[in-house]
Specification:
single chain, alpha/beta, Rossmann fold, five-stranded parallel sheet, 10 helices, about 55% helix
């Protein structure tokens, strides 16, 4: 079963591609951002603590986020056998703690999917999303700050996961169908995703004019 981490700067499409991948594999989609926003919306003490960080575009402290995410990962593995972890870990200490957590429970991730796009494209996407969805946290200032935080705190994870031999890097600055085809091909090459019976591989489907999104 697929157990993957989706890693990307804000706006690179990890939420979109995570949801699509869960439909293809049956693994549970665990969005750290969604879980944090749900906690804030409930107005709990934990939610108020989370909001004090997310409103500024800062990372939520490790203890807070682990208290929310760890039960979700355990439940996902129990219910579906796998997970697509969207937006976590975001720092080296989180990555090391997550690796130990996974090893202790035999839930170690078998791939990290790193999505990239040019910074100005990321800013444009996030501003469009703010207008479309009414996301109050997506102001230009907060967006720039979040991208700076990613460059400082999260980018070091790229080399860490590359060194472990589990990093899959894809550009999302191209048509969505191309990204999906590339993603499936890379997962299949590692034996993490098996073509469904009677369906062509994504690269062959693309050559035949079919959309990999319909697979």
């Amino acid at each position: 079963m697929v157990r993957v981490i989706m890693l990307s700067p804000p706006g690179a499409g990890k939420g979109t591609h995570s949801r699509w991948l869960t439909l293809q594999t049956g693994a549970a989609h665990i969005s750290s951002g969604d879980l944090l926003r749900e906690e804030v919306a409930r107005g709990s003490d934990l939610g108020r603590q989370v909001a004090s960080y997310t409103d500024r575009g800062d990372l939520v402290p490790d203890e807070l986020i682990f208290s929310i995410l760890a039960p979700a990962v355990v439940a996902a593995a129990r219910d579906t056998g796998g997970y697509v972890l969207d937006g976590f870990p975001r720092t080296m200490p989180q990555a090391l703690r997550a690796a130990q957590f996974g090893a202790d429970l035999a839930l170690t991730s078998n791939a990290v999917i790193y999505l990239t796009a040019p910074e100005e494209e990321l800013v444009s996407r996030l501003l469009d999303r703010a207008r479309r969805d009414g996301r109050a946290d997506d102001t230009l200032g907060v967006i720039r700050h979040r991208l700076a935080v990613f460059a400082k705190e999260t980018a070091p994870l790229i080399d860490y996961y590359r060194g472990r031999g589990i990093l899959l890097e894809l550009s999302t600055d191209r048509p969505e169908a191309d990204v999906r085809a590339d993603l499936v091909n890379q997962l299949q090459a590692r034996g993490l995703m098996v073509p469904r019976a009677g369906e062509p591989r994504p690269d062959l489907a693309e050559q035949a004019g079919m959309s990999p999104g319909n697979m």
